[in-house]
Amino acid sequence: xxxxERRLLFFxxxxxxxxxxxxxxxxxxxxxxxxxxxxSVEKAVGLPFKTPPRSxxxxxxxxxxxxxxxxxxxxxxxxxxxxxxxxxxxxLIPDTLDLKRLLLDLYSEQVAGYYDPETGVLYAVQGGDxxxxxxxxxxxxxxxxxxxxxxxxxxxxxxxxxxxxxxxQAVLEGHATIASIRILAPLADVVDSPEFWDxxxxxxxxxxxxxxxxAKAPLVLREGLIFPYLGGAEFMQWWSRNEGTAxxxxxxxxxxxxQVLHPERYLRKDLPIPIRFADSTAEVLYExxxxxxxxxxxxxxxxxxxxxxxxxxxxxxxxxxxxYRTPDGPALVWYLVWDGQPMADRFRQQxxxxxxxxxxxxxxxxxxxxxxxxxxxxxxxxxxxAWPGRIPLPAVRLP
Length: 399
Fold this sequence. Notes:
By secondary structure, the protein is of the alpha+beta class. Helices cover 51% and strands 15% of the residues. The chain is built from 15 helices and 10 strands. A hairpin with a 2-residue loop joins β8 and β9. α2 (27-45) crosses α8 (162-184) and α6 (130-147) packs across α8. The protein is globular. Mean pLDDT is 87; it is low at 1-25.
């Protein structure tokens, strides 16, 4: 690695660390910093600001209040209950974990500055180090610029397809990550260096592990937080080399984490197959899609690994799950379709060997092969022993 790349890596990891230092900035200086960064951000992104970005300072208490409101908006009580139940039944989080509290603690630990799409204002947290804050604000200014070309607020609040949401987040964060690197090192083409990205990926993961809340969080949350920045940046590298425009807009946005992880799937228009439940929504607590990223994480959990294997495509076609309320506790029904029978068989074997033995007391786990809409499919159930009784399991259909 060249000396320039080493220096850049040091500053980027410093930004990822989100540490504190006594050399702090005031509100007027933040305005000056944002104003000074504006030309570099526009050059790195390749788009001009339609209106100048606004900025303000906030205290750590104000940040926590903002994050609390954000978590409550993204996870209203019923959705929070459903996501928590699904992750518990899948074995992605312990039954005792308070998901809302952990998310708030994780976000609070990570944030040194942010852009709020609702107010259109860039916020810097008081007490931040100048070098770190320059990187953070450059990154957040890219989000402010994105918002002038994309419906950022509605993209980030879309519900009903968590996998598609994760793909959109990856594009936005990956785009901002690459632009931040270009702003920090405008004369060094480090974003095109495979060696740089290998080292950067390793250093970011290592640095995040030094953060107490993050280090103790379940793998699904750790990988979910890192993926938009690392996986998203790698997708946006591919995008800039192959598509030549600043960022995907509208219908160009990837529709799945499979497309982000494996851009060749995006290129050949390998679209996710929508699965629809055909029965009543009565007693349904929550419904969503896992997608390739979270399935990779689930497989890592079943293997006992501390890192998901994301390099090799799974052959995922689509999936959909529901969590039902029952008198004996929540029940999970999960359907998946695959690109081919070998992929379906491989996943069935992995789930049979790893997932069935994780059935909670008083519950049963079944992993069944079936054909769904003419495609190789699976149905996975983790439910109380008495459920569904005389009522058949819910069915699904493809459009």
